[in-house]
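In response to reviewer comment 3 from the previous cycle, which asked for concrete evidence that the modeling workflow produces usable outputs, we include below a single protein chain processed end to end. The sequence was submitted unchanged, and the resulting C-alpha cells are shown without manual editing.
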Amino acid sequence: MDELIRKSAVEIVGLLKRGEVSPIHLLDALERRIGEVDAKVNALPTLCFQRAREHARSLMRKPAGERGLLCGLPMPIKDLTEVSGVRSTQGSPIFADKVPEESDLLVKHLEDAGAIVYAKSNTPEFGAGANTFNEVFGRTLNPWNPARSAAGSSGGAAVALATGMAWVAHGSDSGGSLRNPASFCSVVGLRPSPGRVAETRLSKIDANLGIEGPMARNVEDCALLLDAMSGEEPADPVSLPRYETSFLDAARSGWTPKKVAVSRDLGITPVDPEVAEIVLAAARRLEEAGVVVEEAHPDLSEAHECFQTLRALSFATGMKPLLEAHRDKLKPEIVWNIEKGLALTADDIVRAEHQRAAMFQRTLAFFATYDLLLCPATIVAPYPVEERYVSECAGHSFSNYVEWLAIAYAITNVMCPAISIPAGFTGEDLPVGIQIVAPPRAEGRMLAGARVLESILGLAQRVPMEPRPAT
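The workflow returned the following C-alpha cells.
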C-alpha cells in the first residue's frame, strides 16, 4: 500500500484500467495513510469512506472502459464545495453542521468522469485568506515544517498531496488559492482560464475572479485532472467546450517555448530576495532547452485597486445576507471585505472594470512577443502558522490581509491560466514555487512549457510524505 501511495495519478489510473488494482483497494490504502498522517497536519478533517466505497462498488459493476476518464481514482473535494450527504462547512461556524442533499455541479461532473470522493479538504473560512485555519477544524500545518503555514485557501488539498493522502485534489482560486499552497508545499496547482471548469452558480452567474481547478504532485497528473474537470455544462452559462486535444496530451506534446519573460515582482509588489533569486535561477534553466529568457513583464500597475475593488464587490454580492444574519460568526477579515464592497460607488466599480480591460489588452500585446511569463508564485517562503497573513515583506508593510497576494491576483485580473510548480528550496529547506502564465485559454501551451521546466529542474514529486518535526 505504501508503494501505491507514492505512485503518480497517471500510473494509478493505468493500474485501474488494466484491472491490476480496484478502487476499493485504493480507498483502503488512503484510509490507512490518513490514519497514520493526518493527525500531524490536519488536512482532511471530514472523511466519507462509506459513501466512497458505495460509489466504488457501483462503478466497478461497469466494464473498465465505461468507468470514465479517471476510472475510479479517489480524490478529496475542498470544503467550499458541496458534496451530497457529506458535511460541507465552508470552514464557517454558520454551516458547521450542514449536510447538503445535492452535490455541486463540479462534483457531479467529476463523479461522472470516474472520480470517487472520499474526503473534504480544509480551507479558511469561506476561502478568505491565504492561511488555512478556521473556527470549525483549526489549522492545517505545512508538512515541510508544521510550525509554518500551508498557505491557502486550498491548503488542505496541497498538504494531502504532499503527505501521500491524495494522488490528485480539487481546489479553487481567486487571489492565488491554488497557486499559493502549491508553492508552500512543493506540489502543482493550476488556475485554469475562467469557464474551463463548470460549477454551480449561486450569486453572480458570470463571476470570473474565483474559479475551480486541479492540484497534483506533478504536471502530468494536474493535466489529467484538468481533463476530467473541464467541459461545457448547460447549468453553468459561462462554461467552455472541451479543449481540442486532451490537456495530458498537450503536456506531453514536447512543445517548447522559443522566448519567455521572467519577472521577480511583476513591477507591483515586494518579494523576499531569496525567493526572487530562486525563481530567477529556475527560469534561467530554460536556456538549457534553447529558450530565450528575458526579464520583462506587462504593465499591471492598476492590479491592486482593480482586484481589491472587484473582490470586495464579489464579497458583498455573495455574502451580504450572511453579514446581516451572522455578523458575530464571521471572522474580521470577511466582515471588512463585505463592508468594503457595500461601500463601493458606481464610479469605483466602473474605474475597476476599465482598469481590468486596459491591463488585459496590454497583457495580450505582451504575449505577442513572449510565449510564457514566469514569476514567483508567492512573494515569501512558508511563514509562521500563527500569523493570520503576511503583514510585511522586504521592508514594506501591507495595508490589509489581501495585498501580499498581488503577484497572484494580478494574473487573476487578466484572465490568464497560470500554474505553480516547484522551483527550489530556501536555506531553511522550505519550498518555493514558480508561476508560469500563458495567454487566455492557452492551457495546453502552459502545461507543455511547465513540463519542460519540471523535467529540467528535477523536483517533481519531491515532497516530504512524512511530516517533519516543527522547528
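The chain has 15 helices and 15 strands. We consider this sufficient to address the reviewer's concern, and the full set will be provided in the supplementary archive.
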